[in-house]
Design brief:
alpha/beta, Rossmann fold, 2 domains, seven-stranded mixed beta sheet, five-stranded parallel beta sheet, 10 helices, 16 strands, binds zinc ion
Length: 388
Protein backbone atom coordinates (compact mmCIF):
# COMPACT_ATOMS: atom_id res chain seq x y z
CA UNK A 1 0.00 0.00 0.00
CA UNK A 2 1.18 3.48 -0.83
CA UNK A 3 -0.62 5.87 1.47
CA UNK A 4 0.86 9.15 0.28
CA UNK A 5 1.82 10.56 -3.12
CA UNK A 6 5.31 9.35 -4.20
CA UNK A 7 6.02 12.83 -5.63
CA UNK A 8 4.65 15.32 -3.11
CA UNK A 9 3.70 13.17 -0.06
CA UNK A 10 0.10 14.45 -0.03
CA UNK A 11 -2.38 11.92 1.45
CA UNK A 12 -5.25 13.22 -0.75
CA UNK A 13 -5.93 11.14 -3.85
CA UNK A 14 -8.85 10.43 -6.19
CA UNK A 15 -9.69 6.88 -7.30
CA UNK A 16 -9.26 6.51 -11.07
CA UNK A 17 -9.40 2.83 -12.05
CA UNK A 18 -8.99 -0.70 -10.79
CA UNK A 19 -7.55 -3.78 -12.49
CA UNK A 20 -8.26 -7.01 -10.66
CA UNK A 21 -5.36 -9.34 -11.39
CA UNK A 22 -2.38 -8.48 -13.55
CA UNK A 23 1.00 -10.23 -13.62
CA UNK A 24 3.33 -8.56 -11.15
CA UNK A 25 6.25 -8.90 -13.57
CA UNK A 26 5.09 -8.22 -17.13
CA UNK A 27 8.59 -8.26 -18.57
CA UNK A 28 9.67 -11.53 -17.01
CA UNK A 29 8.90 -14.26 -19.50
CA UNK A 30 8.73 -17.91 -18.54
CA UNK A 31 10.50 -21.02 -19.85
CA UNK A 32 7.34 -23.14 -20.12
CA UNK A 33 3.58 -22.79 -20.31
CA UNK A 34 2.82 -24.27 -16.88
CA UNK A 35 5.03 -21.88 -14.93
CA UNK A 36 3.81 -18.94 -17.05
CA UNK A 37 0.21 -19.76 -16.14
CA UNK A 38 1.15 -19.77 -12.46
CA UNK A 39 2.95 -16.39 -12.55
CA UNK A 40 2.12 -14.17 -9.57
CA UNK A 41 -0.67 -11.66 -10.10
CA UNK A 42 -1.95 -8.77 -8.04
CA UNK A 43 -4.54 -6.01 -8.25
CA UNK A 44 -3.95 -2.38 -9.16
CA UNK A 45 -5.75 0.67 -7.74
CA UNK A 46 -4.82 3.66 -9.86
CA UNK A 47 -5.30 7.00 -8.11
CA UNK A 48 -4.47 10.63 -8.91
CA UNK A 49 -2.86 12.88 -6.31
CA UNK A 50 -5.19 15.79 -5.60
CA UNK A 51 -2.22 18.07 -4.96
CA UNK A 52 0.20 17.49 -7.87
CA UNK A 53 -1.72 15.31 -10.43
CA UNK A 54 0.63 12.37 -10.07
CA UNK A 55 -0.95 9.02 -11.00
CA UNK A 56 0.09 5.98 -8.99
CA UNK A 57 -0.91 2.48 -7.93
CA UNK A 58 -2.00 2.88 -4.33
CA UNK A 59 -2.10 -0.93 -3.88
CA UNK A 60 1.53 -1.36 -4.96
CA UNK A 61 3.45 -3.84 -2.82
CA UNK A 62 7.22 -3.75 -3.49
CA UNK A 63 7.66 -6.98 -1.53
CA UNK A 64 6.32 -9.10 -4.38
CA UNK A 65 8.66 -7.77 -7.08
CA UNK A 66 12.11 -9.18 -7.77
CA UNK A 67 14.02 -8.01 -10.84
CA UNK A 68 16.62 -10.46 -12.09
CA UNK A 69 18.28 -11.71 -15.26
CA UNK A 70 14.91 -12.94 -16.57
CA UNK A 71 13.71 -9.36 -16.66
CA UNK A 72 13.95 -8.26 -20.28
CA UNK A 73 12.91 -4.82 -21.44
CA UNK A 74 15.12 -4.76 -24.50
CA UNK A 75 13.27 -2.92 -27.25
CA UNK A 76 16.28 -2.22 -29.41
CA UNK A 77 15.49 -5.10 -31.77
CA UNK A 78 13.05 -2.67 -33.33
CA UNK A 79 14.76 -0.36 -35.83
CA UNK A 80 12.30 2.42 -34.94
CA UNK A 81 13.07 2.23 -31.24
CA UNK A 82 16.83 1.95 -31.84
CA UNK A 83 16.89 5.04 -33.99
CA UNK A 84 14.88 6.91 -31.36
CA UNK A 85 17.48 6.00 -28.69
CA UNK A 86 20.29 6.91 -31.07
CA UNK A 87 18.76 10.33 -31.78
CA UNK A 88 18.22 11.03 -28.09
CA UNK A 89 21.87 10.26 -27.30
CA UNK A 90 23.08 12.40 -30.20
CA UNK A 91 20.82 15.30 -29.22
CA UNK A 92 22.06 15.28 -25.62
CA UNK A 93 25.74 15.18 -26.60
CA UNK A 94 25.31 17.97 -29.14
CA UNK A 95 22.93 20.22 -27.17
CA UNK A 96 25.05 20.23 -24.03
CA UNK A 97 28.50 19.74 -25.56
CA UNK A 98 29.15 16.50 -23.70
CA UNK A 99 32.30 15.68 -25.64
CA UNK A 100 34.97 14.45 -23.18
CA UNK A 101 32.41 14.30 -20.38
CA UNK A 102 31.50 11.50 -17.98
CA UNK A 103 27.98 10.10 -18.15
CA UNK A 104 26.14 7.90 -15.66
CA UNK A 105 22.94 5.91 -16.01
CA UNK A 106 20.80 4.45 -13.24
CA UNK A 107 19.01 1.35 -14.58
CA UNK A 108 21.07 1.13 -17.75
CA UNK A 109 19.83 -2.32 -18.85
CA UNK A 110 22.54 -3.80 -21.07
CA UNK A 111 24.28 -0.43 -21.54
CA UNK A 112 22.89 0.38 -24.97
CA UNK A 113 22.16 4.05 -24.26
CA UNK A 114 25.49 4.66 -22.51
CA UNK A 115 27.25 3.14 -25.49
CA UNK A 116 25.40 5.49 -27.84
CA UNK A 117 26.37 8.52 -25.71
CA UNK A 118 30.01 7.45 -25.93
CA UNK A 119 29.77 6.82 -29.68
CA UNK A 120 28.54 10.39 -30.10
CA UNK A 121 31.41 11.87 -28.11
CA UNK A 122 31.04 11.38 -24.35
CA UNK A 123 34.34 10.12 -22.93
CA UNK A 124 33.34 7.58 -20.31
CA UNK A 125 30.24 6.02 -18.82
CA UNK A 126 29.17 4.26 -15.65
CA UNK A 127 26.00 2.23 -15.41
CA UNK A 128 24.06 0.39 -12.72
CA UNK A 129 21.47 -2.31 -13.32
CA UNK A 130 20.76 -5.53 -11.41
CA UNK A 131 19.59 -7.18 -14.65
CA UNK A 132 22.89 -6.45 -16.46
CA UNK A 133 24.49 -9.57 -17.90
CA UNK A 134 28.24 -9.34 -18.30
CA UNK A 135 28.11 -11.44 -21.49
CA UNK A 136 26.94 -8.52 -23.64
CA UNK A 137 29.08 -6.70 -26.18
CA UNK A 138 29.49 -3.54 -24.08
CA UNK A 139 31.47 -5.56 -21.49
CA UNK A 140 34.52 -5.16 -23.76
CA UNK A 141 34.16 -1.40 -24.13
CA UNK A 142 37.04 0.15 -22.12
CA UNK A 143 35.17 3.45 -21.78
CA UNK A 144 32.23 1.83 -20.04
CA UNK A 145 31.90 0.31 -16.60
CA UNK A 146 28.60 -1.35 -15.75
CA UNK A 147 27.76 -2.72 -12.31
CA UNK A 148 25.12 -5.44 -12.02
CA UNK A 149 23.45 -3.98 -8.95
CA UNK A 150 21.08 -1.20 -7.95
CA UNK A 151 22.41 2.33 -7.88
CA UNK A 152 22.36 3.60 -4.32
CA UNK A 153 23.84 6.38 -2.26
CA UNK A 154 27.63 6.44 -1.99
CA UNK A 155 28.23 4.01 -4.88
CA UNK A 156 29.80 6.57 -7.12
CA UNK A 157 31.77 9.70 -6.41
CA UNK A 158 30.01 12.79 -7.75
CA UNK A 159 31.79 12.92 -11.06
CA UNK A 160 29.09 12.77 -13.71
CA UNK A 161 28.40 15.63 -16.12
CA UNK A 162 25.16 14.00 -17.20
CA UNK A 163 23.17 11.55 -15.04
CA UNK A 164 20.39 9.68 -16.80
CA UNK A 165 17.52 7.46 -15.90
CA UNK A 166 15.30 6.10 -18.62
CA UNK A 167 12.19 4.17 -17.62
CA UNK A 168 13.31 3.77 -14.02
CA UNK A 169 11.64 6.47 -11.91
CA UNK A 170 8.19 4.98 -12.54
CA UNK A 171 9.35 1.73 -10.90
CA UNK A 172 10.50 3.32 -7.66
CA UNK A 173 8.52 3.66 -4.46
CA UNK A 174 10.27 6.98 -4.02
CA UNK A 175 11.09 8.59 -7.37
CA UNK A 176 12.17 11.63 -5.36
CA UNK A 177 14.97 9.57 -3.77
CA UNK A 178 15.90 8.32 -7.26
CA UNK A 179 16.15 11.79 -8.75
CA UNK A 180 18.05 13.09 -5.71
CA UNK A 181 20.53 10.21 -6.14
CA UNK A 182 21.10 11.24 -9.74
CA UNK A 183 21.57 14.85 -8.69
CA UNK A 184 24.09 13.75 -6.03
CA UNK A 185 26.14 11.90 -8.66
CA UNK A 186 26.79 15.13 -10.60
CA UNK A 187 30.20 16.75 -10.40
CA UNK A 188 29.93 20.24 -8.82
CA UNK A 189 32.32 21.56 -11.45
CA UNK A 190 30.76 19.75 -14.38
CA UNK A 191 27.76 20.30 -16.63
CA UNK A 192 25.28 19.48 -13.84
CA UNK A 193 22.75 17.80 -16.15
CA UNK A 194 20.05 15.21 -15.65
CA UNK A 195 18.09 13.44 -18.37
CA UNK A 196 15.04 11.51 -17.22
CA UNK A 197 12.61 9.62 -19.42
CA UNK A 198 9.37 8.03 -18.22
CA UNK A 199 6.15 6.78 -19.82
CA UNK A 200 3.78 9.68 -20.47
CA UNK A 201 0.91 9.39 -18.00
CA UNK A 202 -0.91 12.18 -19.83
CA UNK A 203 -0.96 9.96 -22.93
CA UNK A 204 -2.53 7.24 -20.77
CA UNK A 205 -5.19 9.73 -19.67
CA UNK A 206 -5.88 11.35 -23.03
CA UNK A 207 -5.56 8.33 -25.32
CA UNK A 208 -7.05 5.78 -22.91
CA UNK A 209 -3.65 4.08 -22.74
CA UNK A 210 -4.96 1.27 -20.60
CA UNK A 211 -2.36 -1.17 -21.96
CA UNK A 212 0.40 0.91 -20.41
CA UNK A 213 -0.83 0.06 -16.93
CA UNK A 214 1.50 -2.55 -15.49
CA UNK A 215 2.23 -3.64 -11.95
CA UNK A 216 5.94 -2.83 -12.15
CA UNK A 217 5.06 0.84 -12.59
CA UNK A 218 4.20 2.44 -9.28
CA UNK A 219 3.95 5.80 -11.02
CA UNK A 220 2.48 7.33 -14.17
CA UNK A 221 3.95 10.81 -14.49
CA UNK A 222 2.04 13.69 -16.00
CA UNK A 223 4.25 16.53 -17.29
CA UNK A 224 3.01 18.48 -14.26
CA UNK A 225 3.98 15.84 -11.71
CA UNK A 226 7.38 15.21 -13.35
CA UNK A 227 8.14 18.92 -13.33
CA UNK A 228 7.10 19.09 -9.68
CA UNK A 229 9.31 16.12 -8.83
CA UNK A 230 12.32 17.80 -10.48
CA UNK A 231 11.66 20.96 -8.51
CA UNK A 232 11.52 19.00 -5.25
CA UNK A 233 14.80 17.26 -6.15
CA UNK A 234 16.57 20.61 -6.56
CA UNK A 235 16.58 20.67 -10.35
CA UNK A 236 15.53 23.29 -12.88
CA UNK A 237 13.79 21.88 -15.92
CA UNK A 238 15.43 23.00 -19.16
CA UNK A 239 13.06 21.11 -21.40
CA UNK A 240 10.21 18.68 -20.75
CA UNK A 241 8.30 17.33 -23.70
CA UNK A 242 6.45 14.31 -25.08
CA UNK A 243 8.79 12.11 -27.13
CA UNK A 244 8.56 8.81 -29.04
CA UNK A 245 5.17 9.57 -30.58
CA UNK A 246 4.07 11.20 -27.27
CA UNK A 247 4.29 7.87 -25.43
CA UNK A 248 7.18 9.02 -23.22
CA UNK A 249 8.13 12.23 -21.44
CA UNK A 250 11.72 13.34 -21.88
CA UNK A 251 13.12 15.83 -19.38
CA UNK A 252 16.42 17.70 -19.53
CA UNK A 253 17.19 19.40 -16.22
CA UNK A 254 20.11 20.97 -14.43
CA UNK A 255 21.05 21.65 -10.82
CA UNK A 256 18.86 24.52 -9.59
CA UNK A 257 20.44 27.67 -8.33
CA UNK A 258 17.63 28.52 -5.90
CA UNK A 259 15.18 26.32 -4.03
CA UNK A 260 11.63 26.87 -5.32
CA UNK A 261 8.25 25.59 -4.31
CA UNK A 262 5.32 26.26 -6.62
CA UNK A 263 2.31 24.00 -6.29
CA UNK A 264 0.98 23.21 -9.76
CA UNK A 265 -2.55 23.83 -11.00
CA UNK A 266 -4.17 20.51 -11.83
CA UNK A 267 -7.96 20.88 -12.23
CA UNK A 268 -7.91 19.88 -15.91
CA UNK A 269 -5.89 16.74 -15.16
CA UNK A 270 -8.29 15.72 -12.37
CA UNK A 271 -11.17 16.00 -14.87
CA UNK A 272 -9.35 13.81 -17.40
CA UNK A 273 -8.57 11.24 -14.72
CA UNK A 274 -12.19 11.02 -13.63
CA UNK A 275 -13.12 9.72 -17.14
CA UNK A 276 -10.35 7.12 -17.38
CA UNK A 277 -12.09 4.35 -15.41
CA UNK A 278 -15.00 4.32 -17.86
CA UNK A 279 -12.66 4.47 -20.88
CA UNK A 280 -10.82 1.42 -19.60
CA UNK A 281 -14.07 -0.53 -19.13
CA UNK A 282 -15.22 0.38 -22.67
CA UNK A 283 -11.89 -0.58 -24.27
CA UNK A 284 -11.77 -3.94 -22.54
CA UNK A 285 -15.36 -4.71 -23.55
CA UNK A 286 -14.80 -3.58 -27.16
CA UNK A 287 -11.78 -5.84 -27.67
CA UNK A 288 -13.48 -8.80 -25.98
CA UNK A 289 -16.40 -8.42 -28.42
CA UNK A 290 -14.07 -8.22 -31.43
CA UNK A 291 -12.26 -11.39 -30.38
CA UNK A 292 -15.57 -13.25 -29.98
CA UNK A 293 -16.66 -12.05 -33.44
CA UNK A 294 -13.42 -13.15 -35.13
CA UNK A 295 -13.57 -16.54 -33.41
CA UNK A 296 -17.18 -17.03 -34.49
CA UNK A 297 -16.18 -16.76 -38.17
CA UNK A 298 -13.12 -18.97 -37.70
CA UNK A 299 -10.42 -16.31 -38.01
CA UNK A 300 -6.90 -16.84 -36.75
CA UNK A 301 -5.82 -14.09 -34.35
CA UNK A 302 -2.31 -12.88 -33.60
CA UNK A 303 -1.12 -10.34 -31.07
CA UNK A 304 2.05 -8.56 -32.19
CA UNK A 305 4.31 -7.24 -29.45
CA UNK A 306 4.98 -9.32 -26.31
CA UNK A 307 6.20 -6.34 -24.31
CA UNK A 308 4.36 -4.94 -21.34
CA UNK A 309 1.44 -3.58 -23.40
CA UNK A 310 0.86 -6.98 -24.98
CA UNK A 311 1.06 -8.81 -21.66
CA UNK A 312 -1.44 -6.39 -20.09
CA UNK A 313 -3.81 -6.78 -23.06
CA UNK A 314 -3.69 -10.58 -22.90
CA UNK A 315 -4.36 -10.55 -19.17
CA UNK A 316 -7.19 -8.01 -18.88
CA UNK A 317 -9.29 -8.53 -22.02
CA UNK A 318 -11.82 -11.33 -21.61
CA UNK A 319 -11.11 -14.09 -24.13
CA UNK A 320 -7.63 -12.82 -25.06
CA UNK A 321 -6.07 -15.76 -23.26
CA UNK A 322 -7.12 -17.97 -26.19
CA UNK A 323 -5.36 -15.86 -28.86
CA UNK A 324 -3.27 -18.47 -30.68
CA UNK A 325 -0.28 -16.50 -31.90
CA UNK A 326 1.81 -14.08 -29.86
CA UNK A 327 4.51 -12.60 -32.06
CA UNK A 328 7.59 -10.53 -31.27
CA UNK A 329 10.73 -9.62 -33.17
CA UNK A 330 13.08 -9.82 -30.20
CA UNK A 331 15.06 -13.11 -30.37
CA UNK A 332 15.47 -13.12 -26.57
CA UNK A 333 11.70 -13.65 -26.29
CA UNK A 334 11.35 -16.53 -28.77
CA UNK A 335 10.30 -19.81 -27.15
CA UNK A 336 9.41 -18.10 -23.88
CA UNK A 337 5.91 -17.85 -22.44
CA UNK A 338 3.56 -14.99 -21.51
CA UNK A 339 2.97 -14.55 -17.74
CA UNK A 340 -0.63 -15.19 -16.77
CA UNK A 341 -1.96 -16.49 -20.11
CA UNK A 342 0.81 -18.92 -21.10
CA UNK A 343 1.18 -18.41 -24.88
CA UNK A 344 4.53 -19.19 -26.46
CA UNK A 345 6.16 -16.13 -28.06
CA UNK A 346 7.08 -16.79 -31.66
CA UNK A 347 9.03 -14.96 -34.38
CA UNK A 348 6.98 -13.63 -37.31
CA UNK A 349 8.30 -16.40 -39.59
CA UNK A 350 6.42 -19.00 -37.51
CA UNK A 351 3.12 -17.52 -38.75
CA UNK A 352 3.87 -18.95 -42.18
CA UNK A 353 2.36 -22.41 -42.32
CA UNK A 354 0.58 -22.16 -38.96
CA UNK A 355 -2.02 -19.71 -40.26
CA UNK A 356 -4.48 -21.10 -42.78
CA UNK A 357 -6.89 -18.28 -43.61
CA UNK A 358 -6.84 -14.48 -43.26
CA UNK A 359 -5.22 -13.37 -40.03
CA UNK A 360 -6.42 -10.64 -37.68
CA UNK A 361 -3.36 -8.96 -36.14
CA UNK A 362 -3.68 -6.90 -32.98
CA UNK A 363 -0.82 -4.42 -33.09
CA UNK A 364 0.16 -3.30 -29.60
CA UNK A 365 2.03 -0.16 -30.56
CA UNK A 366 1.02 2.24 -33.35
CA UNK A 367 4.65 3.37 -33.66
CA UNK A 368 5.51 -0.03 -35.14
CA UNK A 369 2.55 -0.30 -37.53
CA UNK A 370 4.57 0.21 -40.74
CA UNK A 371 7.32 -2.13 -39.56
CA UNK A 372 4.75 -4.86 -38.85
CA UNK A 373 2.84 -4.38 -42.11
CA UNK A 374 6.10 -4.64 -44.09
CA UNK A 375 7.14 -7.81 -42.26
CA UNK A 376 3.75 -9.47 -42.89
CA UNK A 377 3.87 -8.50 -46.57
CA UNK A 378 7.39 -9.97 -46.88
CA UNK A 379 6.17 -13.22 -45.34
CA UNK A 380 3.16 -13.32 -47.68
CA UNK A 381 0.70 -13.53 -44.78
CA UNK A 382 -2.79 -12.27 -45.63
CA UNK A 383 -3.46 -10.10 -42.57
CA UNK A 384 -5.54 -7.18 -41.37
CA UNK A 385 -3.85 -4.94 -38.80
CA UNK A 386 -5.81 -3.54 -35.87
CA UNK A 387 -4.26 -0.84 -33.70
CA UNK A 388 -5.08 -0.86 -30.01
ZN1 LIG B 1 1.34 14.53 -5.33
Amino acid sequence: MIATCPVCASPDAMDVARLEAIPVLCNSLWPDRQSALKADRAGMRLVMCANCSHLFNADFDPGILAYDGRYDTTLTHSAIFSSYVEETAMRLVRSYDLVNCHVLEMGCGQGYFLERLINHGAATGTGFDPSYRADTSVADNPSLKIHSRYFSAGQSSPTADLACSRHVLEHLESPLDGLELLRASLSPSGRGLVYAEVPNGLWTLEMGGVWDLIYEHVSYFTPTSLQYLAQRAGLDVIKLEPVFGSQFLGMDARIAEDARSETPSIDELLNKASDLGETITDLRRGWAERIVKWRSVGRDIALWGAGSKGVTFLNIVDGADIIEHVVDISPTKFGRYVPGTGQEIIPPSRLVGSVTGPLEVICMNPNYQKEIAAELADLGVDATLHLV
